[in-house]
Design a protein that fits this description.
Distance between the termini: 11 Å
CATH architecture of one domain: 3-Layer(aba) Sandwich
Number of strands: 37
Strand content: 25-35%
Number of helices: 14
CATH class of one domain: Alpha Beta
Radius of gyration: 26 Å
Helix content: 10-25%
Largest sheet: 8 strands, mixed
CATH topology of one domain: Rossmann fold
CATH superfamily of one domain: Alpha/Beta hydrolase fold, catalytic domain
């Protein structure tokens, strides 16, 4: 433990960070090429604009590729002497993986389904058997589909109602632009049909002769339309069910629980429009349940001749309403669960005999049951602070409700709640083969004081015996965007930090929805800086309460969470021992000013449009990480990215790394890992992801002087 604790309370940055200096020899230095652009009378200078290949999404520019290779070589040089630690972490991670992990089976259309892993394999194998049979049929082996591909991701799959056809979508380069293939399961052979430029989701029609999918634009990563493809015909003959011309809107679809209706929704983070089409007749025009001009968000499900509606039209925290499917007009909506300040309704699913409701009450997740003929009640769960959600529940008439459950100390579990006896039956607890005893660990939820008087939730986990005297290290993580709240979940990789004396904490900053939908609204647009302030205030609260000393906190965030990391290393670099910026959205202003990027128009509802508003321009410019890099000391940083990433383009982490290295005044290590064959989600396969995590945790451990 001496290597862990020595020097932990030192607050001088030059001494504190001296353990992770830059490598001797050649340090990558990207060339600076003057580039200027003017907006609202303000001139922006960007010496690293050239790192964006002008032929994107194709990246062939030799100087760009040479620079990325130089950075990857530098990263490899850093990693080489620490290979024993990386290997040790990887073996620890791998030892906690159930080599033959399998799902709890579920039933649909006369078959029982499940997936399993083959020992040593990266991907899942999907099987099914007839309910009156014993032989399982493999219908998807992801390992076979992944052969020959550096990157592989199964997007979605569906089996036709007559159990004859399988359709699935795959992404093999990380671009999230899928190919859909269709297989005859009776003949065990593919049909000629192959759909390209698909968004991912697939669904068969009731007669099993057509496939519903979403078509992406050729030149942009946005969904043009929801289409119906008739088997045996050319893709260019597909029927368009609904198209969307507004480039700021996302478009997707799903099947209602009753299987009677297709739901098509188009919208952004402020408003959407939901339409339904009878699955019995896909030739009908979609029927609108609401209009985008009404400016609220809506989700819809269906059962028992009613549409059930989750909407924030009358209350920020959403209400549940219903309306007869025979006359589904807005004026006839009837409250089922009125909106209120204390209950945040997050999701619903309709069954023949009841309605299941996912909710959060004062930041605590739970599930309620609303029987058709009896009073509602809340399901009693083992722990107060936990991650709770609806699991796989495909049968409209089923008499049980499958629930996903885990906490910071409880491995991922599957429960079936019996609606008749009202008992909770455990079906699976994630196995940790190398051993795990939850009694050795402790979790707690505390509330940190934000500078504006708000209370910010913080969920912590640590090994029992953790000393709250500032002598031990802490790993702090945040996201804080898109109303995506951080659930208090279990992590087998995190155990390697806890077992080395770390506490791990989630900062539930504004921008997520942990404390209700208003919590999200208070961290977006012109309130975005609340998110960054919350993170710094959480850190200072943890320091003040003795959980950790100033300068002994390693931090991490990815994507929009990487934006948070960029801001806080600019604003409070003295607090952090190291920072990991994973596929970070750090070039916010330039990205939001570029309407040609496929994801920029849809993002204006989240960040604001600096093209049309000088006030928004100045606000984003005031916090945009890339635009606020300063000549000061920065903590050691690991930055990651993916060349094919359609969400956070590769040049954001690359430009950030280049500019920070040229500007900062210290000699602390700054390394960047760009995956040249992947996208936003980096390595695929269960072991590939573990290798990435081993490198990332090794970086943080080394920053704390821990090398074993």
């Amino acid at each position: 433990m001496s290597s862990l604790l020595s020097g932990c309370s030192i607050e001088k940055k030059s001494e504190l960070f001296a353990r992770l200096p830059q490598l001797e020899g050649s340090v990558p230095q990207a060339k600076a090429i003057a580039f200027q652009a003017e907006y609202h009378g303000v001139t922006l200078t960007d010496d690293y604009n050239w790192i964006r290949d002008q032929g994107y999404p194709e990246v062939n520019d030799k100087p760009v590729l040479d620079y990325l290779k130089t950075e990857n070589d530098y990263y490899a040089n850093f990693l080489a002497p620490h290979k024993p630690l990386v290997d040790k972490l990887f073996e620890e991670f791998k030892g906690r993986v159930d080599e033959a992990d399998t799902s709890v089976p579920w039933q649909k259309e006369g078959y029982e389904y499940r997936w399993y892993y083959q020992p040593g394999k990266e991907y899942k194998t999907w099987v099914r058997r007839k309910l009156d049979g014993i032989v399982e049929q493999i219908f998807i082996d992801e390992n076979l589909l992944a052969q020959g591909h550096e990157y592989f991701s199964l997007g979605d799959w569906d089996i036709s109602p007559d159990n004859k056809y399988l359709a699935y979508s795959v992404d093999t380069d990380g671009s999230e632009r899928n190919i859909v293939k269709i297989k005859n399961l009776i003949l065990n052979e593919y049909i000629e049909d192959q759909l390209t430029d698909a968004a991912g989701s697939v669904l068969f029609s009731q007669d099993s002769q057509s496939l519903i999918y979403s078509l992406l634009a050729k030149d942009k990563w946005r969904t043009l339309s929801v289409n119906v493809h008739k088997l045996g015909t050319k893709q260019n003959l597909d029927k368009v069910l609904l198209s969307e011309t507004d480039e700021s809107f996302y478009l997707d679809f799903y099947l209602t629980s009753s299987t009677d209706y297709l739901v098509i929704q188009t919208g952004n983070s402020i408003t959407n429009e939901v339409s339904v089409v009878s699955m019995a007749d896909l030739s009908q025009a979609p029927q609108s349940l609401n209009k985008r001009e009404q400016n609220f968000l809506l989700q819809a499900d269906h059962g028992n001749e009613y549409f059930y509606l989750l909407a924030n039209d009358t209350h920020t925290n959403f209400r549940v309403a219903k309306v007869a499917d025979s006359h589904a007009i807005y004026e006839d909506w009837q409250d089922v669960i009125p909106g209120c300040d204390t209950r945040y309704v997050k999701g619903i699913q309709v069954f023949k005999d009841y309605l299941a409701v996912e909710q959060s009450i004062q930041g605590i997740e739970s599930i309620s049951i609303l029987p058709n003929q009896q009073p509602s009640y809340q399901i009693s769960l083992p722990e107060k602070v936990a991650s709770v959600g609806l699991g796989t529940n495909p049968e409209f008439t089923q008499k049980h409700l499958r629930i996903r459950y885990e906490s910071m100390i409880t491995p991922g579990s599957v429960y079936d709640f019996d609606l008749i006896s009202r008992t909770l039956n455990i079906r699976k607890v994630r196995a940790v083969p190398s051993g795990y005893d939850k009694r050795n660990y402790q979790t707690e939820r505390i509330m940190a004081d934000a500078r504006d008087g708000k209370k910010v939730p913080v969920t912590l986990v640590y090994k029992k015996g953790y000393k709250k005297d500032g002598t031990q290290p802490l790993y702090l993580y945040a996201y804080g965007s898109y109303s995506f709240g951080l659930a208090p979940d279990f992590s087998t990789t995190r155990l390697s930090l806890l077992n080395r004396g770390f506490a791990f904490a989630y900062a539930h900053v504004r921008g997520g929805d942990e404390m209700g939908y208003q919590w999200y609204l208070d961290g977006k647009l012109d309130k975005r800086t609340n998110t960054f302030n919350d993170f710094i205030d959480v850190a200072e609260h943890l320091i003040e309460d003795g959980y950790v000393a100033k300068g002994n906190i390693s931090i991490e965030g990815g994507s929009a969470g990487g934006e948070v990391m960029g801001v806080v290393v600019n604003q409070a670099p003295e607090l952090w021992r190291s920072a990991t910026l994973a596929v970070p959205f750090v070039d916010v202003l330039n990205t939001m000013l570029d309407a040609t990027l496929p994801l920029t128009p849809p993002e204006w509802s989240e960040w604001g449009n600096p093209l049309t508003s000088k006030e928004t321009f100045e606000y984003i410019q005031g916090y945009s990480p890339y635009d606020n890099i300063q000549a000061e000391e920065y903590p050691p940083m690991l930055v990651t990215g993916g060349l094919n990433d359609p969400r956070v383009t590769y040049w954001e982490p690359a430009k950030w790394t280049a500019k920070v290295r040229a500007t900062k005044t210290d000699k602390n290590l700054l390394v960047m890992r760009i995956n040249m064959g992947a996208g936003h989600f980096s390595n695929t396969g269960r072991y590939g992801r573990l290798k990435d995590s081993a490198e990332e945790y090794a970086f943080a451990l080394i920053a704390h002087g821990i090398d074993k």
